[in-house]
Amino acid sequence: MWIRLLPPFGDGKTWQEIALPPKATIKELMDRLVEIHPDLRPYLRATVEETFHQFILLRDDHVLTANDLIEPDDRIVMVMPLTGG
Amino acid sequence: MTYGYMGKILRVDLTGGQVKTESLKEEWARKYIGGTGLATRYLHEEIDGSTNPIDPKNPVIFMTGPLGATRSITSGRHQVVSLSPLTGIFGESDCGGTWGDQLKRAGFDGIIITGKSAHPVYLWINEGQAEIRPGDRFWGMDTFNLDPLIKEETDIKATVACIGTAAERGALIANIMHDGVDARAAGRCGLGAVMADKKLKAVVVRGTGKVSVADAEGLKTLIKAHAPVVSDRLKDMRTYGTARMVQVSEQIGSMPIQNFKYPHRWEEGAAKISGPAFAEKVILKPYFCGGCVIGCGNTIQVKEGPYKTVVGGGPEYETINLLGANCLVDNLEAICLANELCNRYGIDTMDTGNLVAFAMEAFEMGLITVADTGGVALTWGSADAMLEMVRMIGEGTRIGALLMQGLSRASKAIGGEAEEIAMHVKGLSMAAHDPRAYNGLACSYATSNRGAHHTSGQTHLYEHRLAVPEINHKPPGRFVVEGKGALAALTQNIMNVLDSLKSCKFAQNGGWTIGPLAEAFRYVTGRTDTIEDLIRHGERSFNLKRLINIDRGISRKDDTLPKRLLTLAKTAPGYTPNLPPLEVMLDEHYRVRGWSEEGIPLRKTIERLEIP
User: Fold this and answer.
1) What is the CATH number of domain B8-206?
2) Hey, are the CB atoms on B465 and A63 less than 8 Å from each other?
3) Backbone φ, ψ for residue B70 (5° rounding)
4) Which of A54, B227, B252, B299 is the most buried (most CB within 10 A)?
5) Which of B236, B273, B332 to mutate against chain A (most A CBs within 10 Å)?
């Protein structure tokens, strides 16, 4: 799968390929991400749901939830969450 | 009722030059809580169907809530309620800062101001005493200049609510600014125009008293459990402000771009005006309202260049998107200066952003020409054109004299196709959340009692990501249709509770939702209202506002959205090309509310809610 980290998580421009098994969980993606980008570790919390208060993951305009699975051809954007305006 | 309330309302008659204190009506406080609910109940008593917004009889009401000035977090807020000169119907605005807490500490739950002074005046409230003072020397001052001078004349530790020069010039998008350069606004519905008509320049407050709390230890324990969670979940707001939401709004298709008509993605533009860009370039420190543990506001400065600003409150998400993206302006510094100009003039940044975008599109269509603008070419994306329009609107010059009357009046006066490109509901311009990205929000905007304002329901938050276990709510997803009419009603009722207690809506993201708030309410007041009771109080407030509007001719025909938002799908790559099926959602909404098919509350609904 491919991921793009918008600021402040990354430069917002680069798509980075991450190797994950088919139907990987969000937790597996997050674990792999912090291996590659240790500076993301402070954003992680005890649960995926709690972590999603620090950032969210988008597949197009679909906001991923803790139960979504990641497919090899997914292109996902990490961005700060919406909090209501 | 000794806990949570000061038990006093200050009543001011500017025609007779009289101030008097009266007891808070306890029965009303029991049914309407405080803030928006209680102020609406007082408004309903003061007016009748023939009262006009610009009428000495139309009161402007400032009301705090029972949680204010206690340890309850994020409750340093107050509500301003009146008939709106901008929309002609019920008007209200929620405001943060320090003013509400000081009013309570001065000994008052609220102020009801009627009448009209022959000369400019201001109201000085100091530790339980109040007087009307001559305000001639302050008339003509902008809000930033006024603040320190009026404190010199009263108390340097006072806090100031005031109107700017735009209201004096007759702007119907005039707001009520608070806290000087920190710039906390009661921005919506043109309530500054009511103060201007009354020749009331400012309300200055100093108070140091305490609010009695029924169970201080219980409240302390509750806050100790919740404050760290709220603070942690929203900690990035202290770094990036509400601008942290700019990029996600572009990503999920909720960003208003080019007067809501842009057919492409705007990722590069969004990045330039995003939270991280603000943090890198202009944010100096976070700003906290009274009792806040979030710090979503920020103090900024553009230190040099053509868009230089003073050190002061920076633009919020709504301002950034509406003066920026909605005008295709990606110049962050220019947006900061536009924000400062609006705050100094005392005009709503949201209305102004919509008006500039409207003017740019009207210029593109030939409905407005350089003859109307003094030679300024209103080109999409031009930061300088945007700023010139802000100045014209704030000063009421050239086409700005018409635009300062708001989108509805301006578009009607321009005629032709102008009304089709005027993005408002019931006369109030759109907030910066595109309802094509949220079906529930579409229904909420359409049925909001004050027009297109996002916090009237905050339905988008509930359909998109906020789970509220204590009411068994799980986010259904943005594009689901079934249940959204009901969800809009539920969230509107809940927002009426939050605006009555006076609690910040952002804190919901940290779990400071209706359940913990009910506990806080119990600890503060000693009342035993359940969550269901509170929501019923919110429903009562919402329906009373609806009845005030029905007296002014509002019905189903007005519960709609601009044509563009119902017919032009967003088809740029990555976006769901959704169009909100509004009529279906309205049917459900009316059914759930106990209204007729025309949107009129049924007799049994009015009786169930014990509405007078």
Assistant:
1) 3.60.9.10
2) yes
3) -110, -175
4) B252
5) B236
State pLDDT tens for residues B47-94.
999 999 999 999 999 999 999 999 999 999 999 999 999 999 999 999
Check CB contact of A75 with chain B, cutoff 8 Å: no
CA distances from B14 to A33, B50, B64, B71, B118 (A): 64, 21, 21, 35, 8
Contacts of A76 in chain B (CB under 8 A): none
Which is nearest to B167 in space by CA: B17, B343, B415? Answer: B343
pLDDT tens-place string over residues B216-242: 999 999 999 999 999 999 999 999 999
Does domain B435-608 bear CATH number 3.40.50.2000? Answer: no
CB-based contact (8 Å) between A56 and chain B?
yes
Distance CA(B261)–CA(B491), nearest Å, equals: 28
Give B 317-336 residues with CB within 8 A of chain A. 317-318
Is-contact B312 B418, C-beta < 8 A? no
Which residues numbered 24-53 in A keep a CB inside 8 Å of some CB on B? Answer: 50, 52-53
Give the residue from B350, B465, B508 with the most A CB atoms within 10 Å of its CB, the best one to mutate.
B465
Q: Is residue A85 domain-resident?
A: no
Three-class secondary structure of residue B455 per DSSP: helix
What pLDDT score was predicted for residue A84?
A: 79
Report the alpha-carbon distance of residue B104 to residue B206 in Å, rounded.
Answer: 10
**Chain A contact for B231, CB < 8 A?**
no
Angle, CA of A40, A42 and A45, to the nearest 5°: 105
